[in-house]
Amino acid sequence: MLAIGAAALFVIAFLINAADISTNHVFTSTNVMLIGLALLALHVAGIGSGWAGSRRR
After folding, report:
1. The whole model's pTM is what?
2. What is the C-alpha to C-alpha distance for residues 52 and 57, in angstroms, rounded to an integer?
3. How many CB atoms lie within 10 A of CB 39?
4. Can you tell me the distance from the alpha carbon of 33 to that of 35, in angstroms, rounded to the nearest whole number?
5. Longest dimension (CA), the chain
6. Is 51 exposed, middle or buried (0-12, 13-18, 19+ CB in 10 A)?
7. Residues 1-57 pLDDT 10s
8. Closest of 18, 13, 55, 56 to residue 37, by C-alpha
């Protein structure tokens, strides 16, 4: 799920950069890309990958 969010943020960052849209200092394409990279790192680390509940016998 986090990888899908990261991919969406990468697309938004690309569109901001490609269309040369002027945004405020918080919502720049670099900041959106860094948030996407953070989500991708969390996905690779295994956080948010699904339920990891313990099984009872």
Report:
1. 0.73
2. 16
3. 22
4. 5
5. 58
6. exposed
7. 788 889 999 998 898 888 888 888 888 888 889 999 999 998 888 887 666 666 666
8. 13
Alpha carbon distance 21, 49 (integer Å): 34
Please check whether residue 3 is in contact with residue 40, taking contact to mean a CB–CB distance below 8 angstroms: yes
Q: Which two tokens stand for residue 57?
A: 């016998």
CB 38 within 8 A of CB 4: no
Contact predicate 16/29, CB 8 Å: yes
What are the residue ranges of helices labelled H in the chain? 2-18, 29-45
